[in-house]
Amino acid sequence: MCQLPDYYVLEHLHSGALISLLEAHQPPNTAVWALYPQQRHLSPKVRKLVDFLKEGLAKRPEYRG
Description:
This protein is mainly α and 65 residues long. It has helices at residues 6-15, 44-58.
């Protein structure tokens, strides 16, 4: 048994080669990453985008806590 992203196994799930187990216990699909080069000062555009994402996602209940 393992946990994999849907896009790895979707074809096999559709064909019946694999079956999904414990669907009621799957974690919510809430992962969000912002990747950018580590620098002392972010460009204003990157800083604005990261702040926008943080503020917007903080309003959603699945991202609180």
